[in-house]
Description:
The chain is mainly alpha-helical and 282 residues long.
Amino acid sequence: MAVELLADPLDAALLADLPAVSLDSAAVEAFLSDLAARGRAPETCARYRRSLSRLAQMLPEPGRIRPGSLASCREALLRSGAAPRSVNVILSAANSFLAFCGRRDLQLADTLPAETAPRPELTRAEYRHLLHTAKLLGRERAYLLVLLFAGTDLPVSDLDRLTVEAARAGAVVTGSGKNAALVHLPPTLCRELLAYCGRQGLSAGPVFLTRDGAPMSRTYVNTAIRELCLAARLPLEKGSPSALHRLYCESRRAVEANIALLVEQALDRQMEQEQLTLGWDA
């Protein structure tokens, strides 16, 4: 599968004549098999798979890497709201794949600098404003996507696993094998999802589909939420699944902190009651 590398200095004219690298399923599976054979952990291979899948969606020419493709892809990822660290992870996977294919000439060597300024966080009030705006504009899918990513731990990459059956069961299974996990779906969210499915005539399969009936891609999801953010007159940086997920994590931490405090207070009261009768000076 490897292509013989050109000697330095690289001849631009010769490079232009080289064929594009195909990022099809067969090539990706061969690459992942090579990683596994070289001792990479299953979770590492799964991370490469996710990165290459997202890369394929963002390429200017779907499934094909040509000179300049990775640079264009990087810009598209940043416009979609991806964090620099996430972009670097995807490009690192692309570079590894291209090295496996013997096409280092297509690699993008420079990485994005780490984020230094704090990212603007979405507040609970702004989240409610997004939902209110979606209802006013009749954008039910965007409304449900905001509810989903602000209320669960479901990754965008596993959105196609949110099926009508999962909404009925109240949970989504993500990953596989040792990496399998169960993501809880709140009952109120399930009721809204099932009501939406009823109006859409969906009785099975993925809940979120494009007009062509295909599962929604990450790009489609990002665009829907960012457009809603624009309509709500909120900063675009707050209009992404990752921003909604950070709100979910922060809300969960606050609840867990309150629970820990209640447990501590209950134990204190229990000890005080016991000391009233069993204390040394009782």
